[in-house]
Design brief:
The protein has 265 residues and is an alpha/beta fold. It has a single domain, classed as TIM Barrel. It is 37% helix and 15% strand. It has an eight-stranded parallel sheet. The longest helix is centred in the last third of the chain and has 16 residues, at 248-263.
Length: 265
């Protein structure tokens, strides 16, 4: 099965699917009492002219990526994935995941009492990702980005969730040593503004636009907006994204050109 063909499409680079009966109590921080299937996403995404997607393994499913891979196999031309694995995962397992459309591995450090220790425990994994040309996707507590980046060896591609989750509007301007270290290989998802309600997203967007340029910015819906289902919607996330950008060319760059370069190349 080939993944080398780049298809002209708009892409949602961050959404989740899951079955409530497969939620692991060992990894879940909150109750999940509903199912979300790939066809549910397709309906809301297509209504916003989104025809490609990157499924991200939710932390509460643990290390079992089978449901995500099954969804990709239904439409391997238009879907890619980001998995979650154990720190000791073998190179062979990563290669198999890559063959099934998995382009990166997510490290979810949100709520971690000792994220630097967890990061250190995953150093072998990071080395394997680098050798296989797979990226690391980072999710973390507000204000942690620079410290985490400083503790990662350069040369690996890193995708940062949710604007990088700064704690303040000027955080990245004041403290950018980690960002500078990885600047050439850093991608940022303009996603889930509701998870960082106290920052000026327009200002943070402009920072990233100036810092890494328009070719490494991505958009993600964060659908189905777990814990925020009552207040958020797919359409609203698209509207919020469109308020950030100034022209159609930039919209096409972020929604189409950039994600195809990262996930379909």
């Amino acid at each position: 099965m080939s993944y080398g063909i780049i298809i002209n499409m708009n892409v949602d680079t961050h959404f989740h699917i899951f079955l409530k009966n497969e939620v692991s109590t060992a990894y879940s921080r909150y109750p999940v009492d509903y199912d979300v299937k790939i066809n549910d996403w397709l309906k809301v995404a297509n209504e916003q002219q989104i025809t490609g997607g990157v499924l991200v393994q939710p932390s509460f499913l643990g290390f079992d990526n089978s449901y995500l891979i099954q969804a990709i196999q239904q439409n391997p031309k238009h879907l890619r994935g980001v998995a979650v694995v154990e720190p000791t995962v073998s190179k062979e397992t990563l290669l198999d995941l890559k063959k099934h459309g998995i382009k990166g591995i997510r490290l979810n450090l949100f709520g971690d009492e000792n994220p630097l220790k967890t990061l250190d425990e995953n150093q072998i994994l990071l080395g394997r990702l680098k050798s296989l040309d797979m990226h690391l996707q980072l999710h973390h507590d507000d204000g942690m980005l620079n410290e985490l980046l400083l503790n990662i060896s350069p040369g690996i591609s890193i995708v940062v969730d949710h604007f990088g989750k700064p704690a303040t509007d000027d955080e990245f301007r004041v403290n950018s040593a980690g960002i500078n270290k990885h600047q050439a290989n850093l991608w940022v998802k303009l996603s889930a503004q509701y998870r960082t309600p106290n920052i000026n997203h327009q200002a943070i967007f402009q920072y990233w636009l100036n810092k890494i340029g328009d070719t490494r910015l991505l958009w993600g819906s964060d659908w189905p907006h777990t814990r925020f289902e009552a207040f958020e919607s797919y359409e609203l996330q698209m509207q919020k994204f469109l308020t950030l950008i100034s022209n159609t060319a930039l919209k096409d760059q972020i929604l189409s050109i950039n994600p195809r370069a990262l996930y379909w190349s």
